[in-house]
Design goal:
Helix content: 40-55%
Number of helices: 14
Radius of gyration: 23 Å
Strand content: 15-25%
Largest sheet: 7 strands, antiparallel
Structural class: alpha+beta
Mean pLDDT: 93
C-alpha cells in the first residue's frame, strides 16, 4: 500500500508526540506561502489526463525538480488549476469552497457540470469581480482563495498558534500534557490536559449527590485552527474520562475569527481566559444534572436531529442509551452523554480528525439549547 504524500488532497496524519506535531507544522510553514492577486486576474483551467496543459505542466515540473505526482493528484481530484497571469497553481479540493465564495456563488448545481463548463462559468464571474484575493499555497497546491481585505481575513500563523499554546499551558498549568494532534489540509488540531483538579470539584460533588458514578476525570483543552477559512483559532474546554478514554466537549469555546485584523496578541489574550472559560463550561455541564427529562429517548432523538447528526449514528446512540439508562426518566446530563457517544463511534470507524472535531462542536451546541422544548413524547 502506497503511503499518502503530504501534497495529496486526501493527506491526513495523527501525531502522538508533541515534538513530532510541532516539527511537522514547521515543515508545512516552510513549504507554504501567501500571495495577493487581483480577483479579476484569476482564471480556472480544466486539466485532464493526456491534455496539452497536463503535458506542459509535467515538463515544467520535471525541469524545476518538482514532484510530477502533484499534477496526477490534481487530475484525479479537482481536475482544475488556477492561473494568474503567468503563474499556474494546481487546485486542492479544500480550495473550491473559498473560490466559489470569491465569485459569490452558492449551491451545488455546479458540481453536476463538466469541468470545462464549470471553469467557464466561474471565469465569467471572476473577470468582473473587484478587489484582491489572498491565495494560500501549501505543499505545491492551492489550498484557499480568501479575501484580500485584512478586515475580511487576517492571517494567524498556524505554527505560532500552537507554539504560543504550548508556552502558555506549560507556564500556567503544572500538569499540562500533550495528548495528540492531527493535520489535514483544511484543519489542524491538538489536545492537552490541564491538570487542575479544583476545576472539577463542584461537578464531581453534584454527580455524587445525584447518585452518579464519579470516575476519574481530567480537564483538557483542544486547540483548532485553519489556513483555509474553515475555522478560526479556537480553544475548546473538554473533559477526559480516564476509565474509558472518552472525551466530552463542554461547549463555551474561546473563538478568534480570522477577521478585523486579528493578531497573535489577540490569541494570547484568548489563552489568558482559558481557566475562567473552563469554569463557565463545567458550570453549564453541571446545570444539566438539574434538568429532568421525562421523555429521554424522544428528547435525545430530537436533539440529534436538530444538530444534524446522521440517522445511522442516531440509531446506534439511541440503542446504546436504552441499554445503559432509565428510558422513562433521566437528566439532560444523561442525554448529553448519550449523544456524545457518537464521537466514540466515529473514532472506532477511523473518521478523520476534522470530522470528529466538527462533530464535537455540533454536539456541544446542545448544552445551551432549551431542553424542555425537546422533551415531549414521540408522536
Amino acid at each position: 500500500m502506497n503511503e499518502t504524500k503530504v501534497f495529496e488532497d486526501s493527506y491526513s496524519s495523527v501525531f502522538r508526540r508533541q515534538e513530532d506535531f510541532l516539527s511537522f507544522l514547521h515543515r508545512i510553514m516552510e513549504n507554504s506561502c501567501w500571495k495577493r492577486k487581483k480577483v479579476n486576474n484569476l482564471r480556472l483551467l480544466p486539466i485532464t489526463a493526456g491534455s496539452a496543459l497536463e503535458d506542459e505542466l509535467r515538463s515544467q515540473y520535471a525541469d524545476d525538480g518538482i514532484d510530477e505526482e502533484i499534477i496526477s493528484d490534481t487530475v484525479a481530484n479537482t481536475a482544475l488549476v488556477l492561473k494568474s497571469k503567468d503563474e499556474i497553481y494546481p487546485i486542492r479540493d479544500c480550495a473550491i469552497k473559498s473560490i466559489l465564495e470569491r465569485a459569490g456563488i452558492q449551491g451545488s448545481g455546479l458540481r453536476r457540470v463538466e469541468r470545462n463548463v464549470y471553469a467557464r462559468i466561474l471565469n465569467d464571474i471572476l473577470k468582473v469581480t473587484k478587489g484582491e484575493a489572498l491565495l494560500r499555497i501549501s505543499e505545491g497546491k492551492l489550498s484557499a482563495v480568501l479575501s484580500g481585505d485584512c478586515n475580511d481575513y487576517a492571517i494567524l500563523d498556524m505554527e505560532q498558534i500552537f507554539l504560543h499554546t504550548v508556552e502558555y499551558l506549560q507556564k500556567n498549568f503544572s500538569g499540562c500534557r500533550y495528548m495528540g494532534g492531527f493535520y489535514e489540509h483544511d484543519m489542524v488540531s491538538a489536545i492537552w490536559t490541564i491538570d487542575e483538579k479544583d476545576l472539577l470539584e463542584a461537578y464531581k460533588k453534584e454527580l455524587s449527590d445525584n447518585g452518579k458514578t464519579v470516575d476519574d476525570m481530567i480537564p483538557m483543552a483542544r486547540v483548532t485552527t485553519s489556513d483555509t477559512g474553515t475555522c478560526g483559532a479556537n480553544i475548546y474546554p473538554m473533559l477526559l474520562c480516564v476509565k474509558d478514554g472518552k472525551s466530552i466537549n463542554l461547549g463555551s469555546p474561546l473563538k478568534l475569527i480570522h477577521k478585523n485584523g486579528s493578531t497573535m496578541a489577540d490569541y494570547d489574550e484568548q489563552l489568558k481566559q482559558l481557566y475562567g472559560k473552563y469554569q463557565q463550561a463545567i458550570g453549564k455541564l453541571t446545570k444539566l444534572l438539574e434538568i429532568r427529562i421525562a421523555n429521554p429517548i424522544n428528547c435525545m432523538k430530537e436533539m440529534m436531529t436538530k444538530i444534524a447528526i446522521p440517522k445511522k449514528y442516531q440509531a446506534e446512540a439511541l440503542e446504546l442509551f436504552k441499554a445503559q439508562n432509565d428510558v422513562w426518566s433521566a437528566t439532560a446530563h444523561d442525554v448529553y452523554l448519550g449523544i456524545s457517544e457518537v464521537l466514540f463511534m466515529l473514532e472506532c470507524e477511523g473518521a478523520s480528525g476534522s470530522r470528529i472535531a466538527k462533530m464535537e462542536e455540533q454536539i456541544a451546541r446542545t448544552i445551551s439549547l432549551d431542553w424542555e422544548k425537546y422533551d415531549f413524547p414521540e408522536m
